[in-house]
Specification:
about 25% strand, single chain, transmembrane, FAD-dependent oxidoreductase, nine-stranded mixed beta sheet, G3P_DH_FAD-dep, 18 helices, alpha/beta
Length: about 550
């Protein structure tokens, strides 16, 4: 809480080269890129960082194979290059994984023709991943016995990538990186509108935790409000070339349905892609693709039943999955960039490509659409645009992304080996501690080794099956701007995605975790979480 309070104080009536509104993936990479290159930048979000679309994805960093059907070859080529770049930059986080795809009889294309599309996709991917392989229905069963192949015409196996940990964690690490380079960022700070006066933007901000309002001045204003880009542009009187349409996607998380580490891919009953995705000891299934008029969406009984009906039809399970099997749910909108303000688009064919609309006169940027795969390009593009708007960028060639160097990793691994860190791994954990701490924290993982050496209890789990140590929670309290318990449980970690709410609340270590995170406010923050999540569940019924 101290980090946020300090940053809000620095925001109050401050002046910046660039103010970024929105802490989703587009805002996060913009801040990380600009701050690393020496620009004086601030970022605010009306909720928590990665609180909307960026925490409700399928956790995939893929090259857009589905866009081949619409003949968007240039987009697929660009996304494949972006995916490969992410893999090289974040080898511990963005990992290759095999997709096992089943094509049902009567599908709009023959199974072998779809397989040929994966060959084209592999070529676009510069052969970086393993080669695709065609499979008969019997071959699918041999590879993965849980697949129901009674109506399968055939299928194939190919490679793409996914985020090992969590989409929101990936996004927050860009926020953390921007803070390291001097960005002043704060969550739960909302823009009430901006106006241009005397060559500067004056943005009225409201601290949504204290209710205080104040003004921030900036030369450039970046609207990275995700699904609310159009809404904020109305507040500032900005007229843009693009606008957003919204597609709702939902996922259900259940106990693991298969022991293999493959993503099972199907075409659901509505013809759209449907995934069964490994998530550690759990499985994430979905998604839906429903057009919505507003970014304000919630999981409905129909959404839930659609996912359950499809997974039960597509898999051979010991018993059908029901609502009682659902551990957690994800629901959000995909903001799809549409060029032009009039007319009706074929929204189903709209891709997730991003667009940046620029007002040179007002020094204003609006970022539309986008996806995790292409995020590094967004950060670089924003820095280039800001420089062209006349803002000094002292270190334009500075690389602002990627894991620390191999020498840093080798030092961490050597220290960890000498102290026997992996031997301290709890039996419930899905991977050794060395791998987990390095992936999540990079250079900061070395500090955690020192904490564990000083106090071995820092290597203990506080919440059963949560895969978070006491030292990680202490680190989060100091450096990760946790304002509400849900920030930690849902977005800095994925605890509330893999552990039932009732089990979290009953966990003996939860109160201690709250005390570490919030100090004297621990009990109030715990009750706030219980009340807010109870209301969320009731609204879903």
């Amino acid at each position: 809480m101290e980090l946020r309070a300090s940053n809000v104080s620095k925001l109050r009536d401050g002046y910046f080269d660039v103010l970024i509104l929105g802490g989703g993936i587009n805002g996060a990479v913009s801040a990380a890129s600009l701050a690393a290159k020496g620009v004086k930048v601030a970022l605010v979000d009306k909720g928590d960082f990665a609180g909307l679309t960026s925490s409700n994805s399928s956790n995939l960093a893929w090259g857009g194979i589905k866009y081949l059907e619409n003949h968007e070859y240039f987009l697929v080529d660009k996304l494949c290059r972006s995916r490969n770049h992410l893999m090289r930059s974040y080898p511990s986080t963005v990992k290759e994984i095999r997709f096992l795809t089943t094509i049902q009889k009567g599908f709009r294309f023959p199974a072998f023709l779809v397989y040929l599309g994966t060959i084209v996709y592999w070529v676009f991917g510069r052969f970086v991943t393993r080669a695709p392989k065609y499979l008969s229905a019997a071959g699918l069963s041999k590879r993965e016995g849980v697949i129901n192949t009674s109506q399968a015409a055939g299928g194939f196996e190919y490679s793409d990538c996914y985020l090992y940990d969590n989409d929101a964690r990936f996004v927050f690490n860009f926020i953390r990186s921007s803070l390291n380079y001097g960005c002043i960022a704060a969550n739960y700070v909302e823009s009430l509108g901006s106006e241009r006066k005397g060559g500067l933007w004056r943005t009225r901000l409201k601290d949504n935790l204290s209710g205080e309002t104040f003004t921030v001045r900036s030369r450039v204003l970046i609207n990275a409000c995700g699904p609310y880009v159009d809404t904020h542009n109305q507040l500032t009187g900005q007229h843009t070339e693009h606008r957003h349409l919204f597609s709702k996607g939902v996922h259900l998380i259940v106990d693991r349905v298969s022991d293999t580490q493959r993503i099972l891919t199907f075409f659901a009953s509505d013809g759209r892609l449907f995934f069964v995705i490994p998530m550690g000891p759990k499985t994430c299934i979905g998604t839906t693709d429903t057009q919505e008029a507003s970014p304000e969406v919630e999981m409905t009984a129909a959404d839930r039943q659609f996912v359950l009906d499809n997974v039960n039809a597509l898999l051979n399970l010991e018993r059908p999955l029901t609502v009682d099997d659902v551990i957690a749910e994800r629901c959000g909108v995909r903001p799809l960039a549409l060029k032009g303000q009039d007319g009706v688009a074929d929204w189903v064919k709209l891709s997730r490509k991003h667009a940046i609309d620029i007002s040179h006169k007002d020094q204003h940027l609006s970022i539309f659409g986008g996806k995790l795969t292409d995020c590094l390009n967004v950060g670089d593009e924003v820095s280039d645009v800001v420089a062209k708007l006349g803002v000094a960028v002292p270190y334009p060639e500075k690389c602002w992304y990627g894991e620390p160097s191999n020498s840093v990793k080798e030092e961490f691994m050597h220290q960890a080996k000498l102290m026997g860190l992996d031997e301290m791994t709890d039996p419930s954990s899905s991977e050794p501690l060395t791998q987990r701490l390095w992936r999540r924290y990079g250079r900061s993982a070395i500090e955690m080794l020192e904490m564990i050496r000083e106090d071995p209890s820092c290597a203990e789990l506080l919440i059963e099956n949560a895969e978070y140590l006491r030292c990680e929670i202490e680190h989060a309290a100091r450096r990760e701007m946790i304002s509400k318990l849900d920030d930690f449980l849902r977005r800095r970690s994925k605890i509330s995605l893999v552990v039932r709410r009732e089990e979290i609340i009953k966990a003996p270590g939860l109160k201690e975790a709250c005390e570490i995170l919030f100090g004297d406010e621990a009990e109030a923050k715990l009750q706030e979480y219980i009340e807010e999540t109870a209301g969320r569940r009731e609204s879903d019924v």
